[in-house]
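Exercise 7. Given the components listed, write out the predicted structure of the assembled complex. Treat all entries as one system.
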Amino acid sequence: MRILLVEDDALFGDGLQTGLMQHGFTVDWIKQGRQALHALRVESFDAVILDLGLPDTDGIAVLQECRTRDDRVPMLVLTARNAVDDKLQCLDGGADDYLVKPIDIREVAARLRALLRRKDGRAKSAIRHGNIELDPLAHKVVVNGRSIELSHREFEILHTLIRAPGTVMSKEQLEQTVYGWVTEVESNAIQVHLHNLRRKIGREVIRTIRGVGYTIEQQPQ
Amino acid sequence: MIHSIRFRLLLGLTVVIISIWVLVVIATYHGAKSEVRALFDTQLEQSARVAMRTLLGLPTANDEIKPESTISPPEAEQEQHAQYRKNLVVQVWNDKGELFLHSQDAPLFPLSTVRAGFANSMINDTIWRTFSFEDKAHGLTIQAGEPYSVRDYLTQHVVIQTLYPIIIGLPIVTLLIWFAVGKGLTPLRKLAKEVGERDPDNLASIRAPYAPNEVQPLVDELNSLLQRLDDKIEKERRFTGDAAHELRTPLAGLKAQAEVALGARNKQERQKALTNISTGVDRASHLVDQLLTLSRLDESASIDDGNVNLLDTVRTVIADLLPYANEKSTDISLEHHGQGQSWIRGNKEAMYILLRNLVDNAIRYSPEHSLVTVSLGRRDDSNVIAVQDQGQGIPVQDRQRVFDRFHRRSNSEAYGTGLGLSIVKRVIDLHNGKVTLRQGTNGSGLSVEVMFPSVDIESASDPLTTTEPSIQHSARADRLATEH
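Answer.
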């Protein structure tokens, strides 16, 4: 899952980014509000962690602008401001959650999972699709009752596709989701991961739509 | 007791009333005395003449008048006004010098040596008033007299009569004044009660429409004090809030880094997190130091401890920051324009903090291998220090805001507390100085220029020529911790 972290404090930003990555998230970190707005316009994220006290513009302004342009990305406000007024302003202004610093990274991770679950309209974090069961919390995949070992990247690709069955994801979108901006990506990296993934869970699960991207088909109701 | 308005008023009014009454009594005494004298003298004279007339009317000259016969007043009159009556004596002397006739209590010697008119004479150790006249036709001399004690008695009596109302009235008047003053002071007591029962958090203005005009200035001053107190507390509250907010961020960072270290997937990741924790703690302590410095500077109203030699202070600052400058391969140059020393009035430690912040900032926001120039000079009656770096500079629109507390400029990669320039501003304000931000002379970087009124050290050491206001020692040099 790809998270956009908007935080100006170097020490905290670095800690949160690394910490969330330890929990299996792909985290892209931006220190300024305007850059964040730009990134949200041109790329897609599964959730945003937003600090309020940004150097160039207030976090609330970022939140409001996002909602004004009908961006429904889940937003978690993470700030040192603990006044009720701030909380009300954020939550009523479109924030999905509000956390006050200092925080426990595990809690942030859990809240992010909750936000995604809610966004996807699921009751549980674990996702079942046909004979495949994926548990994002335990980072486990079970196919036909048999637990299989996936690498971090393979897991993320499967997670991204299985969360939204029927949606076609381009190679670039998958790259962003799995790698973020952190790493230099080999041009065929996604294909290599998909190849390995198909080998482990079965060829027919992920379909390639030529010239467009990849998808996991919706289950018949 | 002596500090009580009620007591003072009571005492003052009572003294005034008693004094007036004493004057009245004295005036009454003298008036009564003079009236009594006129009245009694007339009576004495009349008594003498009546006695003579009576005497001549009754027996003839040929009648044998028994010498030393007495005249007795009627019984009834004897009882009434006895104190007046019995003292009046009459003597009738014939031309042979014999006592021809006298009243009952009269002495047997002449009442007075004066043979005509009024006189005072000493009889049996008391002073008497006498009246004498001669009836040459009959060869008789009549003398009437009475002791002064009669007159004194009457005068005293009149005076005592006027004293009665005073003696009875004084306690009543005193009591009335006591209650009246007490009633007059009710608004004061009410005010005291209102102030006394106030919640310590309630710094709203006191409304006292009942306060008399005399008390209104006190209420106004109290309200003005409350207002100033409220402003100060509000300022401190905001500062504390900001400070707590600012401290929470590095703490959150430390916690996040600690969690990263705990959950590290490899040794390298753990090492990085631990290093981050270490520098994070340094930064948090720096922030705490800056906060303490600022709060100490805030406490003081003015710093005017003595004379500070700017040249010496700048040299010390540069020497102290050289290791940091070397770390960043930054050179510091000091230029001193003008002659002699650069003295200003102020606090040495505060000035050190100011200059250290400026030079520290210049090094911090400069790229590596650059030059920081500190120049010291004189303009008109001011000493001017300019610190110039080769960093990014500050756009004109941001220059005012950088002095705000906790203001950190965007885009700045360097770590700062957002307090350095607030501290600089505070020290400058305390020293009646001025600060200007400019673009560096060669079009890049930032030049911070501070100006302080200079003092001539010879005249400054002479208290008579020192025009500076009195020194306020609210910020002691020893309490002003240096940074880092």
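Discussion: Chain A touches chain B through 26 residues (CB under 8 Å). Helices of chain A lie at 10-22, 33-42, 59-68, 84-92, 105-120, 152-163, 171-179, 189-201.
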